[in-house]
Amino acid sequence: MRPARAAAVSLVLVATAPAAGAETAFGGDRPAGCEFAPDTVWPALRELPPDVREIEADHVRREGDQVRAEGDVQLYADRQRLDAEVLDYDRARGLARTEGAVRLFDGDLLLQGEDGRFQLDEDTGELSRIDYMVRSVPARGQAGAGTQLDPDRHRFEQAQYTTCPVNRDSWRLDAARLDLDQESGRGVARHAVLRVRNIPVAYTPYIDFPLDDRRKSGFLLPSFGTGGRTGADLSLPWYWNIAPNYDATFTPRIMADRGIKLGTEFRYLQPAHEGQVDFRYLPDDRETGEDRQFVAWEHRTRIAPGLRLDIDAAEVSDGEYFRDFGSADRYSGSVRDLRRRADLTWSQPRYRLRTRVEDYQIVDTELADRREPYQRLPQITLEAGEYAGQWAGGGVTWDLDAELVRFARQERASDRPTGLRFDLDPELAWRFDTGGIFVEPRAGVRYTAYELDRRGEPGPESIRRTVPHAAVDSGLIFERDLADGERLQTLEPRLFYGYVPYRDQGDIPVFDTGEREFSFDNLFSLQRFTGADRVGDTHQLTAALTSRILDTTTGQERARLSVGEIRYFRDRRVRRSPSAPALEDRHSDLAVEGRLRIGDAWDGRGSVLYNREHEDTSLAALGVSWSPDERRRINFGYRQRADRLEQTDVSVLWPAGDRVDLVGRWNYSLRSERDLELLAGLQYRSCCYGLRVVARRSLDSDQRYDNSIHFQITLDGLARFDGGVDSLLSEGIAGYDAHPDR
């Protein structure tokens, strides 16, 4: 008969905190047919007070301190359940025994075994011939015997561990001893053999692995690959969890053609500051015979509310360092200089004041003297602005940009002018905006003063320049519902008028000024230069038209087409170089850009700059992608810029079965008729492991090809052996997500 019930029985069961979930290979859901344990049913667990135990069985008998339950025994504690055929409990000794098969559900942990013995007062217990499962990882295994050391720690003898589904042991870890510590979130296996398809492939006397995402000192996953500049390349990082707010990673990098390079990364975090120090050192490079090193420091400090100090500095031993090791040491081989800067910034709602000190190290030794950047010792900038209120139905705002900077040069480039520059640019604007029409006139005056050390160059040492400027921006927005009622089309004409008078600036040296690249957005800007050394003169009128198609339900933009052009009423005489001829074209390039989305899979973007007077295309860019799901993606890109470049870029991610994906990229120069980069590889994902192999051929800054092979092996919940595949594919294939579940 049933039920017999005993309440307030002092019985404490095996307890293990649930483990945090671990990602599957490459993220995302497990492949089809990979249900972890489809025949295991997890019962609902009861929430009970800590001192309450409930026993249900076909028969329950109590004699003094002895309790015996028989026949379909179920013992409940807080979020725990023990199933057995026979349960004997000695209340005086706090000892419980089970006979025959026993199942313990404890949160996300399931233990199945025989001949259970639990010392309840001490939160310990023993089982033999165990099958266990951790649902939240998920992971499972077997053991000859198991011991509960305390509520959070279990030890298994002659144990197995895997994250593969039941009856599908693609890999497993066989260990003489296995410890699972829920308190620290780590598992430790001793004298362990890694088996793949039941074939032993590796042995280790000690390995620890995560049960959740908490940090812990120990070896991280090695990375390996091959490269034309390094040969076979293996990195073995060791992580040191110094404190909750400090850690360090030490990485020996073994390169067959170079030697052993030692890397150190130290990170720190405090309530008021944080930062990172990186150091790489290669003694006696086998190729060059020299010591090679790189050091970098990033630091952020919050000194007071609104006051912040930022430091970003780096130094390298030689100009070839990043060509040889750049892919692994933060920078690419095309680095020309390393800037070192410190910023002290004070930010308030209406203004931001920044003081900067900036130096640099020339990495590209072939960089011409005239192209080397200046030091800023120091640079002080002020950005301020405020809404001043309403006037004549519109809003009035004022803005102020100011700068004081001292430009200096290093000794090797001491023949160029240096000096002090002060730049002040106040502006007043009024905006009338009803939602369907807007008008915004604005006007300002830019004042710049120089105190120069010409260093032998002719010209005045004190220069003053004052340039007024004015503009009026305006536009209309028309809307109409399309026939289907689910789309809305807009028509948005826009006019922009601007005027900046000519000022002779031939005596002003160029410290930090360059010409902006023309684009559709530049149609509505007065300034065609970056920096303050040149203020471009103009008298212009921009006419532009944009039309959009919007989804009325979601507001998402489904299509957009914009076209615009500037009409110049006079020549533009200010040039970056005084010897350059004036710009005499009466029209800018015709700027066209558009975007089209079809459904959720197709996305296309394009832009064209067309010179009507010369009847040629200054720039053309096209990008089309098709991606109906995360496993299928095709990207096509085309880019052409006058006589400088013409390239195509095709990348593909495509399934070759339920579990195999092919990846590839082909970046090709039509002008030089050569490959710029080739990628080809595959990724395989099973129920509990994944494999990626990618071959790469790329053209470096010396116009030489570098060939490399990269590997990644992931054993879900145990380890990842990475050769830089994630970053390679994420950077090479637009829209590729290496970990879609993060």
UniProtKB/TrEMBL annotation:
Residues 291-658 form the LptD C-terminal domain. One of its GO terms (biological process) is lipopolysaccharide transport. It is found in: Cell outer membrane. GO terms for cellular component: cell outer membrane; transporter complex. Transmembrane segments: none annotated. Residues 1-22 form the signal peptide. The keyword Membrane applies. Pfam families: LptD. Keywords: Cell outer membrane, Membrane, Signal. Belongs to the LptD family. Component of the lipopolysaccharide transport and assembly complex. Interacts with LptE and LptA. Together with LptE, is involved in the assembly of lipopolysaccharide (LPS) at the surface of the outer membrane. This is LPS-assembly protein LptD. It comes from Thioalkalivibrio halophilus. The lineage of its organism: Bacteria, Pseudomonadati, Pseudomonadota, Gammaproteobacteria, Chromatiales.
